[in-house]
Amino acid sequence: MSNYHHINIRSSSTRKAPVLSSNQRVDAKYGENPQNGDVVIGKILELGQHTKFEEPGGHEIILQRGNVVSVVLGRRYSTKEFCGMIPDMLTQNCKFDLLNVGGIAGSVVSRNTLAKEPTRLLYLGHAVDDNNKIINTLNFQSAKKTKHPKTIDWPLKIIMVCGSEMDSGKTLSSGQIINILSNNGFVVGGGKLTGTSRMKDILYMKASGARCILDFMDVGYPSTYLCSIDELKDIFYAFTEYFADQGCKFLVVEVADGIFQRETEMILNCSEIMENISFFTLAANNSVSAYGGIIYLKNQYGITPDFISGLITADWLSMEELHTKIPVHFLKNSSESRKDFLQIIQQKVL
User: Fold this and answer.
1) Which fold has domain 149-348?
2) What CA–CA distance (Å, rounded) separates 150 from 251?
3) What ranges do the domains of the chain cover?
4) Range list of H helices, the chain
5) pTM as predicted
6) What is the pLDDT of residues 18-33, one digit of tens each?
7) Do β-strands 23-27 and 2-6 pair in parallel, antiparallel, or remain unpaired?
8) Are 287 and 311 in contact (CB under 8 A)?
9) Nearest to 267 by CA among 240, 236, 312
10) ∠ CA(55), CA(7), CA(65), 5° rounding?
11) Is residue 192 within a helix (H) or strand (E), and if so which, with residue range?
Protein backbone atom coordinates (compact mmCIF):
# COMPACT_ATOMS: atom_id res chain seq x y z
CA MET A 1 0.00 0.00 0.00
CA SER A 2 1.26 3.47 -0.87
CA ASN A 3 1.50 6.46 1.45
CA TYR A 4 3.18 9.87 1.47
CA HIS A 5 6.38 11.29 3.00
CA HIS A 6 7.56 14.86 3.12
CA ILE A 7 11.05 15.11 1.57
CA ASN A 8 13.45 17.45 3.39
CA ILE A 9 16.28 17.13 0.85
CA ARG A 10 16.27 15.99 -2.76
CA SER A 11 19.62 14.58 -3.91
CA SER A 12 21.34 15.60 -7.13
CA SER A 13 21.06 12.00 -8.36
CA THR A 14 17.28 12.51 -8.66
CA ARG A 15 17.62 15.67 -10.76
CA LYS A 16 16.36 13.96 -13.92
CA ALA A 17 13.15 12.74 -12.28
CA PRO A 18 10.83 15.76 -12.60
CA VAL A 19 7.78 13.93 -11.22
CA LEU A 20 9.18 13.97 -7.67
CA SER A 21 7.33 16.23 -5.26
CA SER A 22 8.09 17.54 -1.78
CA ASN A 23 5.23 15.40 -0.47
CA GLN A 24 6.18 12.21 -2.28
CA ARG A 25 4.05 9.14 -2.77
CA VAL A 26 5.91 5.93 -1.86
CA ASP A 27 5.24 2.20 -1.92
CA ALA A 28 7.41 -0.26 0.01
CA LYS A 29 6.22 -3.33 -1.92
CA TYR A 30 8.72 -2.55 -4.68
CA GLY A 31 11.55 -3.18 -2.24
CA GLU A 32 11.08 -6.87 -2.96
CA ASN A 33 12.97 -6.47 -6.23
CA PRO A 34 15.06 -3.26 -6.20
CA GLN A 35 16.65 -2.21 -9.49
CA ASN A 36 19.45 0.03 -10.67
CA GLY A 37 18.09 3.57 -10.99
CA ASP A 38 15.10 3.17 -8.67
CA VAL A 39 14.34 6.35 -6.70
CA VAL A 40 13.73 5.56 -3.04
CA ILE A 41 12.90 7.61 0.04
CA GLY A 42 14.86 7.16 3.25
CA LYS A 43 15.39 8.74 6.64
CA ILE A 44 18.91 9.50 7.90
CA LEU A 45 19.57 7.26 10.91
CA GLU A 46 23.34 7.34 11.50
CA LEU A 47 25.88 9.83 10.17
CA GLY A 48 29.14 8.30 8.94
CA GLN A 49 31.47 8.87 5.98
CA HIS A 50 29.15 11.31 4.23
CA THR A 51 27.78 14.17 6.31
CA LYS A 52 26.81 16.36 3.35
CA PHE A 53 24.30 15.94 0.56
CA GLU A 54 24.49 17.41 -2.92
CA GLU A 55 21.23 18.95 -4.12
CA PRO A 56 20.13 19.01 -7.81
CA GLY A 57 21.80 22.37 -8.45
CA GLY A 58 25.12 21.12 -7.07
CA HIS A 59 24.93 22.92 -3.73
CA GLU A 60 26.04 20.80 -0.74
CA ILE A 61 24.12 20.97 2.52
CA ILE A 62 24.81 19.37 5.87
CA LEU A 63 22.85 16.24 6.71
CA GLN A 64 21.13 15.77 10.06
CA ARG A 65 19.65 12.72 11.70
CA GLY A 66 15.99 12.49 10.87
CA ASN A 67 16.24 14.15 7.45
CA VAL A 68 13.94 12.47 4.92
CA VAL A 69 15.79 12.32 1.62
CA SER A 70 15.36 11.09 -1.94
CA VAL A 71 18.17 8.86 -3.22
CA VAL A 72 18.79 6.57 -6.19
CA LEU A 73 19.75 2.91 -5.95
CA GLY A 74 23.03 2.21 -7.70
CA ARG A 75 26.51 0.76 -7.40
CA ARG A 76 29.77 2.43 -6.46
CA TYR A 77 33.41 1.63 -7.08
CA SER A 78 35.75 3.78 -4.99
CA THR A 79 39.21 2.70 -3.86
CA LYS A 80 39.17 5.59 -1.37
CA GLU A 81 35.79 4.83 0.20
CA PHE A 82 33.41 1.98 -0.67
CA CYS A 83 32.44 -0.73 -3.03
CA GLY A 84 28.65 -0.68 -2.96
CA MET A 85 25.96 -2.78 -4.63
CA ILE A 86 22.19 -2.69 -5.09
CA PRO A 87 20.51 -4.53 -2.17
CA ASP A 88 18.87 -7.87 -2.94
CA MET A 89 15.79 -6.72 -1.04
CA LEU A 90 14.53 -3.72 0.89
CA THR A 91 11.82 -4.14 3.51
CA GLN A 92 9.85 -1.51 5.39
CA ASN A 93 12.12 0.22 7.95
CA CYS A 94 15.24 -1.79 7.02
CA LYS A 95 18.64 -0.07 6.90
CA PHE A 96 20.66 0.72 3.78
CA ASP A 97 23.75 2.80 3.01
CA LEU A 98 24.54 6.16 1.44
CA LEU A 99 27.31 5.47 -1.08
CA ASN A 100 28.26 9.01 -2.11
CA VAL A 101 27.51 12.70 -1.61
CA GLY A 102 25.38 12.76 -4.76
CA GLY A 103 22.74 10.53 -3.22
CA ILE A 104 23.53 7.12 -4.70
CA ALA A 105 22.52 4.47 -2.17
CA GLY A 106 22.80 0.71 -1.75
CA SER A 107 24.71 -1.76 0.41
CA VAL A 108 28.41 -1.42 1.20
CA VAL A 109 30.22 -4.71 0.51
CA SER A 110 33.77 -3.51 1.15
CA ARG A 111 35.35 -0.39 2.65
CA ASN A 112 38.75 1.27 2.61
CA THR A 113 39.98 0.96 6.20
CA LEU A 114 40.72 4.71 6.26
CA ALA A 115 37.09 5.52 5.47
CA LYS A 116 34.41 5.76 8.14
CA GLU A 117 31.37 3.52 8.28
CA PRO A 118 28.71 4.64 5.77
CA THR A 119 25.91 7.01 6.63
CA ARG A 120 22.86 4.80 7.12
CA LEU A 121 19.26 5.34 6.11
CA LEU A 122 15.92 3.83 7.04
CA TYR A 123 13.98 2.59 4.03
CA LEU A 124 10.56 4.26 3.80
CA GLY A 125 9.63 3.05 0.34
CA HIS A 126 10.10 3.42 -3.39
CA ALA A 127 9.06 6.71 -4.94
CA VAL A 128 6.08 6.16 -7.26
CA ASP A 129 4.07 8.34 -9.62
CA ASP A 130 0.33 9.03 -9.58
CA ASN A 131 -0.27 5.66 -11.25
CA ASN A 132 1.76 3.92 -8.53
CA LYS A 133 4.55 3.12 -11.02
CA ILE A 134 8.18 3.08 -9.89
CA ILE A 135 10.18 6.23 -10.64
CA ASN A 136 13.46 5.10 -12.23
CA THR A 137 16.16 7.38 -13.64
CA LEU A 138 16.53 5.21 -16.76
CA ASN A 139 13.11 6.52 -17.82
CA PHE A 140 14.25 10.16 -17.68
CA GLN A 141 17.03 10.64 -20.22
CA SER A 142 17.98 14.07 -21.50
CA ALA A 143 20.44 12.49 -23.95
CA LYS A 144 20.18 9.18 -25.75
CA LYS A 145 21.63 7.34 -28.71
CA THR A 146 19.27 7.62 -31.68
CA LYS A 147 21.50 6.71 -34.61
CA HIS A 148 23.57 3.71 -35.54
CA PRO A 149 27.24 4.62 -34.94
CA LYS A 150 28.21 3.91 -38.55
CA THR A 151 25.75 6.55 -39.76
CA ILE A 152 27.18 9.33 -37.60
CA ASP A 153 29.20 12.05 -39.32
CA TRP A 154 31.80 12.88 -36.66
CA PRO A 155 32.07 16.67 -36.47
CA LEU A 156 33.51 16.46 -32.97
CA LYS A 157 37.13 16.30 -31.98
CA ILE A 158 37.12 14.19 -28.83
CA ILE A 159 39.76 14.57 -26.15
CA MET A 160 39.83 11.76 -23.58
CA VAL A 161 41.20 12.27 -20.07
CA CYS A 162 42.07 9.15 -18.08
CA GLY A 163 43.92 8.78 -14.80
CA SER A 164 46.54 6.51 -13.34
CA GLU A 165 44.17 6.07 -10.37
CA MET A 166 41.40 7.77 -8.43
CA ASP A 167 42.06 11.38 -7.39
CA SER A 168 44.95 11.86 -9.80
CA GLY A 169 43.69 15.20 -11.15
CA LYS A 170 41.46 14.15 -14.03
CA THR A 171 38.75 16.77 -13.47
CA LEU A 172 41.35 19.50 -12.98
CA SER A 173 42.96 18.44 -16.25
CA SER A 174 39.61 18.38 -18.06
CA GLY A 175 38.90 21.89 -16.81
CA GLN A 176 42.32 23.13 -17.94
CA ILE A 177 41.79 21.75 -21.44
CA ILE A 178 38.29 23.19 -21.70
CA ASN A 179 39.54 26.56 -20.52
CA ILE A 180 42.41 26.66 -23.03
CA LEU A 181 40.17 25.77 -25.96
CA SER A 182 37.24 28.00 -25.01
CA ASN A 183 39.55 30.97 -24.42
CA ASN A 184 40.83 30.50 -27.95
CA GLY A 185 37.40 30.72 -29.51
CA PHE A 186 36.39 27.07 -29.74
CA VAL A 187 32.98 25.77 -28.66
CA VAL A 188 33.69 23.02 -26.14
CA GLY A 189 31.53 20.46 -24.36
CA GLY A 190 32.43 18.62 -21.17
CA GLY A 191 31.34 15.11 -20.30
CA LYS A 192 31.88 12.55 -17.54
CA LEU A 193 31.66 9.17 -19.25
CA THR A 194 31.93 6.87 -16.23
CA GLY A 195 31.76 7.02 -12.44
CA THR A 196 29.09 7.53 -9.76
CA SER A 197 26.59 10.34 -10.16
CA ARG A 198 27.55 13.70 -8.69
CA MET A 199 27.33 17.23 -10.10
CA LYS A 200 30.68 18.52 -8.83
CA ASP A 201 32.92 17.41 -11.72
CA ILE A 202 30.70 18.52 -14.59
CA LEU A 203 29.93 21.82 -12.88
CA TYR A 204 33.70 22.42 -12.74
CA MET A 205 33.80 21.79 -16.49
CA LYS A 206 31.00 24.31 -16.96
CA ALA A 207 32.82 26.89 -14.85
CA SER A 208 35.96 26.29 -16.94
CA GLY A 209 34.18 27.38 -20.11
CA ALA A 210 32.19 24.40 -21.43
CA ARG A 211 29.11 25.47 -23.39
CA CYS A 212 27.24 22.36 -22.25
CA ILE A 213 27.86 19.45 -19.89
CA LEU A 214 26.63 15.88 -19.48
CA ASP A 215 27.32 12.83 -17.40
CA PHE A 216 26.04 9.27 -17.54
CA MET A 217 23.06 10.24 -15.35
CA ASP A 218 21.82 12.29 -18.29
CA VAL A 219 21.56 8.96 -20.11
CA GLY A 220 19.76 7.48 -17.10
CA TYR A 221 22.56 5.63 -15.29
CA PRO A 222 23.16 6.43 -11.59
CA SER A 223 26.61 4.87 -11.95
CA THR A 224 28.51 2.92 -14.57
CA TYR A 225 30.05 0.32 -12.27
CA LEU A 226 29.30 -3.14 -13.74
CA CYS A 227 27.75 -1.70 -16.90
CA SER A 228 28.17 -3.82 -20.03
CA ILE A 229 30.28 -2.63 -22.93
CA ASP A 230 27.08 -2.10 -24.93
CA GLU A 231 25.76 0.22 -22.21
CA LEU A 232 29.05 2.13 -22.16
CA LYS A 233 28.92 2.50 -25.94
CA ASP A 234 25.34 3.76 -25.71
CA ILE A 235 26.46 6.44 -23.24
CA PHE A 236 29.38 7.40 -25.47
CA TYR A 237 27.23 7.70 -28.60
CA ALA A 238 24.54 9.61 -26.71
CA PHE A 239 27.27 12.06 -25.75
CA THR A 240 28.60 12.47 -29.27
CA GLU A 241 25.15 13.08 -30.75
CA TYR A 242 24.20 15.57 -28.05
CA PHE A 243 27.40 17.63 -28.17
CA ALA A 244 27.46 17.64 -31.97
CA ASP A 245 23.86 18.89 -32.00
CA GLN A 246 24.92 21.67 -29.58
CA GLY A 247 27.48 22.89 -32.10
CA CYS A 248 30.59 21.84 -30.17
CA LYS A 249 33.90 21.61 -32.01
CA PHE A 250 35.56 19.76 -29.13
CA LEU A 251 34.30 17.33 -26.52
CA VAL A 252 36.48 16.78 -23.45
CA VAL A 253 35.42 13.47 -21.94
CA GLU A 254 36.63 12.31 -18.53
CA VAL A 255 36.82 8.62 -17.63
CA ALA A 256 36.59 7.93 -13.90
CA ASP A 257 38.98 6.12 -11.54
CA GLY A 258 42.18 4.62 -12.96
CA ILE A 259 43.31 2.70 -16.03
CA PHE A 260 43.10 -0.66 -14.19
CA GLN A 261 39.43 -0.13 -13.28
CA ARG A 262 36.95 -2.46 -15.00
CA GLU A 263 34.95 0.00 -17.08
CA THR A 264 38.02 2.07 -17.97
CA GLU A 265 39.71 -1.06 -19.30
CA MET A 266 36.59 -1.94 -21.30
CA ILE A 267 36.54 1.52 -22.89
CA LEU A 268 40.27 1.51 -23.69
CA ASN A 269 39.86 -1.93 -25.27
CA CYS A 270 36.83 -0.91 -27.36
CA SER A 271 37.87 0.01 -30.90
CA GLU A 272 34.42 1.50 -31.65
CA ILE A 273 35.02 4.13 -28.98
CA MET A 274 38.78 4.61 -29.18
CA GLU A 275 38.95 5.05 -32.95
CA ASN A 276 36.99 8.27 -32.42
CA ILE A 277 39.39 9.72 -29.85
CA SER A 278 41.54 12.47 -31.36
CA PHE A 279 43.70 13.30 -28.35
CA PHE A 280 44.58 11.44 -25.14
CA THR A 281 45.69 12.89 -21.80
CA LEU A 282 46.85 10.86 -18.80
CA ALA A 283 46.53 12.42 -15.34
CA ALA A 284 48.91 10.98 -12.76
CA ASN A 285 49.82 11.49 -9.12
CA ASN A 286 53.59 11.16 -9.36
CA SER A 287 56.49 10.08 -11.57
CA VAL A 288 56.13 6.36 -10.89
CA SER A 289 52.38 6.23 -11.59
CA ALA A 290 52.86 8.33 -14.72
CA TYR A 291 55.70 6.12 -15.99
CA GLY A 292 53.79 2.93 -15.25
CA GLY A 293 50.68 4.33 -16.90
CA ILE A 294 52.54 5.33 -20.06
CA ILE A 295 54.19 1.92 -20.41
CA TYR A 296 50.98 0.01 -19.65
CA LEU A 297 48.87 2.02 -22.09
CA LYS A 298 51.46 1.49 -24.84
CA ASN A 299 51.92 -2.23 -24.24
CA GLN A 300 48.29 -3.10 -23.56
CA TYR A 301 46.39 -0.83 -25.96
CA GLY A 302 48.93 0.81 -28.26
CA ILE A 303 48.03 4.22 -26.80
CA THR A 304 50.65 6.94 -26.35
CA PRO A 305 49.38 9.83 -24.22
CA ASP A 306 49.73 13.19 -25.93
CA PHE A 307 50.08 14.95 -22.58
CA ILE A 308 50.73 14.08 -18.94
CA SER A 309 48.70 16.14 -16.49
CA GLY A 310 47.28 16.02 -12.98
CA LEU A 311 48.90 16.19 -9.57
CA ILE A 312 52.38 15.36 -10.89
CA THR A 313 52.51 18.79 -12.55
CA ALA A 314 52.37 20.53 -9.16
CA ASP A 315 55.92 19.37 -8.41
CA TRP A 316 58.95 20.22 -10.57
CA LEU A 317 61.04 17.38 -9.12
CA SER A 318 58.43 14.75 -9.97
CA MET A 319 58.24 16.01 -13.54
CA GLU A 320 62.04 15.93 -13.81
CA GLU A 321 62.09 12.35 -12.51
CA LEU A 322 59.68 11.28 -15.23
CA HIS A 323 61.50 13.25 -17.91
CA THR A 324 64.76 11.41 -17.17
CA LYS A 325 62.99 8.13 -18.01
CA ILE A 326 60.78 9.06 -20.94
CA PRO A 327 60.17 12.23 -23.03
CA VAL A 328 56.69 13.64 -22.45
CA HIS A 329 54.67 16.82 -22.79
CA PHE A 330 53.23 18.17 -19.53
CA LEU A 331 49.99 20.11 -19.21
CA LYS A 332 50.94 22.59 -16.49
CA ASN A 333 49.26 25.65 -15.08
CA SER A 334 51.42 28.15 -16.94
CA SER A 335 51.00 30.34 -20.00
CA GLU A 336 53.89 28.56 -21.74
CA SER A 337 52.29 25.15 -21.20
CA ARG A 338 48.92 26.39 -22.43
CA LYS A 339 50.52 27.67 -25.65
CA ASP A 340 52.35 24.37 -26.09
CA PHE A 341 49.13 22.43 -25.62
CA LEU A 342 47.21 24.56 -28.11
CA GLN A 343 49.97 24.28 -30.69
CA ILE A 344 50.06 20.48 -30.46
CA ILE A 345 46.26 20.28 -30.61
CA GLN A 346 46.27 22.39 -33.78
CA GLN A 347 49.00 20.26 -35.35
CA LYS A 348 47.44 16.92 -34.54
CA VAL A 349 43.70 17.51 -34.54
CA LEU A 350 42.74 20.55 -36.62
Assistant:
1) Rossmann fold (3.40.50)
2) 19
3) 2-139, 149-348
4) 170-183, 200-208, 229-245, 262-268, 271-274, 287-301, 316-325, 335-348
5) 0.95
6) 778 888 999 999 999 9
7) antiparallel
8) no
9) 236
10) 85
11) strand 188-192
